[in-house]
Amino acid sequence: MPAARDYLAASLWRRAGLRIHETVMLDIRDWRPDLGTHGKLHVRFGKGSNGRGPKTRLVPGIDGVDALLEWWLVDVRHQFGEDWDNPDAPLLPSERRARGHAGCTRAGDHALRTGLTKAVDVWLPTWSGRLSPHGLRHFCASSLYARGMDLKAIQELLGHDWLSTTTHYIHVQAAHIEQAWEAANTRVAGRLLAGEG
Fold first, then answer.
1. Catalytic residues
2. One pLDDT digit (tens) per residue for the chain, 197 residues
């Protein structure tokens, strides 16, 4: 069960760009499958800048996040405890119980980091000691950009106040300039050919 929970957390970092604290603080009610095409996660504890406190945002369940959350809530979450249908229960619970506490306690960031570290050591040993939740957040931004998502959309997904911050998260391949040039020329050629007909 903890491995499934850790997989979900890493998927939220890699696919939706959530921060680790944002992930830890999610409750069951924060998944809203009724909003938008893919559903949305209500991130209530986003990082605010300049001491403004938590910044909320709605994060769409893109890149398979919707299917993962459905799997988690239908097939796995109830195995952690009887509070699986309590909207105020943590989305990612700890496998440990607090004394006198009927429901699940919240998995902490240390548990989720440790889960990622162990998985990386086993499945991606060349990345041992180098892959972190924040690194997966960078991967999310870079992979979405490489697939054609515009920077403004990535900025909103990650919850950045400044576009310049988002650009620091984007790591492009060496052939990026050539690919962008070819794509631009293909678009121009398409417009010219359309104008001839």
1. 19, 47, 134, 137, 160, 169
2. 999 999 999 999 999 999 999 999 999 999 999 999 999 999 999 887 666 778 899 999 999 999 999 999 999 999 998 899 999 999 999 988 766 667 789 999 999 999 999 999 999 999 999 999 999 999 999 999 999 899 999 999 999 989 999 989 998 765 666 766 777 778 888 888 887 65
Tell me the C-alpha to C-alpha distance, in Å, between residue 113 and each of 1, 21, 75, 90, 143: 16, 11, 23, 17, 22
Which segments of the chain does DSSP mark as H helices, in order?
2-16, 20-24, 65-71, 109-123, 133-146, 151-158, 163-169, 176-196
What is the Cα–Cα distance from 112 to 125, expressed in whole angstroms?
18
- The CA distance from 99 to 150, in Å, is 48
pTM of the model: 0.84
Comparing C-alpha atoms, which of 137, 162, 114 is closest to residue 22?
Answer: 137
Burial class (CB in 10 A: 0-12, 13-18, 19+), 34: exposed
Amino acid identity of 111? A
Tokens of 129: 């000691």
